[in-house]
Specification:
The chain has about 500 residues and is of the alpha/beta class. The chain has helices spanning about 100-105, 110-125, 140-145, 175, 200-210, 235-245, 260-270, 290-305, 315-320, 330-335, 340-345, 350-360, 370-395, 420-430, 435-450, 495-500; strands spanning about 30-35, 45-55, 55-60, 75, 80-85, 85-90, 130-135, 150-160, 215-220, 250-255, 270-275, 305-310, 400, 465-470, 485-490, 490-495. The longest helix is centred in the last third of the chain and has 28 residues, at about 370-395.
Length: about 500
């Protein structure tokens, strides 16, 4: 059966978007009689007043202890509500419309326009006020941020090895223009017109830093399905990337979902491995748990305090392609325009499902029971291994970063915003508590990406990216399914403004 690794990371048309904070600060805001829940607080602060000025938290006090609001201050009665920091998804890809190729987008301009207007709102609808696009450029950042309501968005530069994963999906020579930070190792002939001196580890990190990237994303992936001989970087190359990145103050994240890749990441000294450990060699095969060899890798990652992104919902986004009722889920109609959902139902919109079916050696018109049997046999063990590894990391208090890889591939089943909430359910099933999820999606993400001076907690001086919730998010993830208000740089947004009209 196919390994399914091909379905866990963005293909080239997803290699877009980037990031600077986006919303214009609103008028002054005062929230009264609210309960503050924030990582770092030993207990909730009840009956609190929070004052926001110029998009930042200006004051926090007990009830009645703050300055009186002026006539131009918006006041919210927070009685019975919880005030929490906005969520951070530390792994998104914002350049493409999920499930659409650039050619299809060009052919369906009306659908594409509606989708691109809605996608940022859908992230906000589920509380994601900050996003990190792991493979992007300043030009794509500008495109993403051209809309009215956009989460604060940052980007990593994608340091792929020339002709390796994941730039290998695009035909030559077009692929090279889309990867300005690609690595060319000594002894490799460069493409025509490209100076290899501009693509050394030191040169690409320097360019990323100058372009405003906050992190470096690199890759260790030999391939999958019909492509299994992709070049992978030399250890010295990634060690040089890490050295240059750390000198520039940038963390290094590595695509690594196999035992070989995560051992490589440990040897190279990367800061975060992206994806759970779900592809194990025969040496580490097991049916119901983590093997001694896998435990050794995970124990080393815990000992090094390496960041770890499970991205558990990724593979579910492949399984759901074959769920005949998936596109009728009423939750989709809140985050995706109806004309896009209708297009997904069309023969053209089913293209990626059919492509995956061919990889599974099934005809596109196979029976639902045949699809269920083959998909479960192919993907089920991979999902289980990811779950076992995640549970092991959680039990040993590994440094878990919340990230979804939305969309992980051109699947329509990784919907913006909603995919994050579904990821939380996968994590709960693996043993992560609501309180742990709350911290990993706020402070842990912020610290790991060196954003904690601005976001991640409810504190004076930090950006007013906040959520008003009806339930305590440290007790239940259902808190994010019924958000009362989203506050983006001090601008108060009602969920009715964010959901599809």
């Amino acid at each position: 059966m196919p390994s399914m690794v091909s379905l866990v990371s963005p293909i080239p048309w997803l290699v877009l978007a980037a990031a600077l904070p986006g919303a214009v600060p609103a008028a002054d805001l005062q929230i009264e009689h609210v309960t503050i829940v924030s990582p770092g607080r030993a207990s909730p602060m009840r009956d609190a007043w929070v004052r926001v000025h110029d998009g930042r938290i200006a004051a926090i006090s007990k009830s009645g202890g703050g300055a009186a609001s002026s006539s131009d201050t918006t006041t919210i009665d927070g009685s019975g509500l919880f005030l929490a920091p906005g969520l951070i998804d530390s792994h998104v890809h914002l350049g493409a419309i999920p499930g659409m190729t650039p050619e299809q987008e060009a052919q369906h301009a009306d659908i594409a326009k509606a989708a691109r207007e809605q996608i940022p709102r859908s992230f906000l609808l589920y509380g994601f006020t900050s996003l990190i696009d792991l493979i992007s450029t300043p030009q794509e950042m500008q495109r993403w941020k051209s809309r009215d309501m956009v989460p604060d968005t940052y980007f990593c530069g994608g340091a792929a090895l020339m002709d390796g994963y994941s730039m290998n999906y695009e035909p030559k020579p077009q692929r090279y223009s889309g990867w300005p930070y690609m690595l060319i190792e000594p002894g490799t002939a460069p493409p025509d017109g490209i100076d290899p001196a501009m693509h050394t580890p030191q040169a690409v990190v320097s360019r990323m830093k100058a372009d405003g990237a906050i992190c470096v994303k690199t890759f260790f992936e030999r391939g999958f399905d019909d492509v299994r001989d992709l070049p992978v970087p030399k250890l010295d190359t990634i060690r040089a990337i890490v050295k240059a990145a750390h000198a520039a103050g940038l963390p290094v994240l590595m695509h690594a979902n196999s035992d070989e890749a995560q051992r490589f990441g440990l040897d190279a000294g990367v800061d975060v491995v992206v994806h759970g450990l779900w592809n194990w060699t025969q040496e580490h095969s097991a049916t119901n748990g983590v093997t001694p060899g896998i435990k050794k890798i995970l124990d080393q990652e815990v000992a090094r305090n390496m960041g770890w992104q499970p991205t558990m919902q990724v593979l579910q986004g492949i399984k759901d392609l074959f769920n005949p009722s998936y596109l009728s889920d009423p939750r989709l109609s809140r985050v995706l325009p109806s004309n896009l959902i209708d297009w997904y139902r069309s023969a053209e919109g089913q293209w990626f499902r059919n492509e995956v079916a061919r990889g599974l050696e099934l005809s596109a018109d196979a029976s639902p029971s045949d699809f269920e049997r083959v998909v479960n046999a192919g993907i089920g063990p991979v999902i289980d291994r990811g779950k076992y590894a995640t549970a092991y990391m959680l039990a040993r208090r590994g440094r878990i970063l919340f990230g979804t890889d939305t969309p992980s591939s051109p699947t329509f089943a990784n919907p913006p915003g909603l995919n994050g909430w579904l990821e939380m359910h996968r994590l709960i099933d693996a043993g992560e508590t609501p309180a742990q999820i709350f911290k990993s999606a706020t402070l842990t993400n912020a610290r790991s990406l060196k954003l904690d001076r601005d976001i991640g907690t409810v504190q004076v001086g930090k950006r007013a990216n906040l959520l008003l919730l009806r339930q305590d998010p440290t007790l239940t993830i259902d808190a994010y399914a019924g958000i009362a208000k989203v506050i983006l740089n001090g601008r108060v947004l009602d969920p009715s403004e964010l959901a599809v009209k």
